[in-house]
Amino acid sequence: MSATILNFINGELVRSPSSRTFPLYNPATGEQTETLGLASTKTSNR
Predict the structure, then answer these.
(1) Model's pTM, two decimal places?
(2) pLDDT-derived band at 41, boundaries 50, 70, 90
(3) C-alpha torsion angle, residues 19, 7, 2, 31 (rounded to 10)
(4) What whole-number distance in Å separates Cα of residue 39 and Cα of residue 41?
């Protein structure tokens, strides 16, 4: 299981309301280490 990275928007850590994510991998092992929640323009402009 991987950790979820929050978005830093307007000085706050924000969990993306979207279900869209991007997997992040350790390049040395190829193992997925974290998941990044993708924010929309609407979320990032708040």
Answers:
(1) 0.65
(2) confident
(3) 100
(4) 7
User: What burial class does residue 14 get, using C-beta atoms within 10 Å of its C-beta: 0-12 exposed, 13-18 middle, 19+ buried?
Assistant: middle
Calpha distance 29→19 (Å, rounded) = 26
Distance between CA atoms of residues 34 and 41, nearest Å: 22
Q: Which residues pair with 24 in a beta bridge?
A: 34
Q: Which residue type is seen at 4?
A: T
Give the CA dihedral 44, 35, 15, 7, nearest 10 degrees. -40
Residues 6 or more apart in contact with residue 40 via CB below 8 angstroms: 16, 18
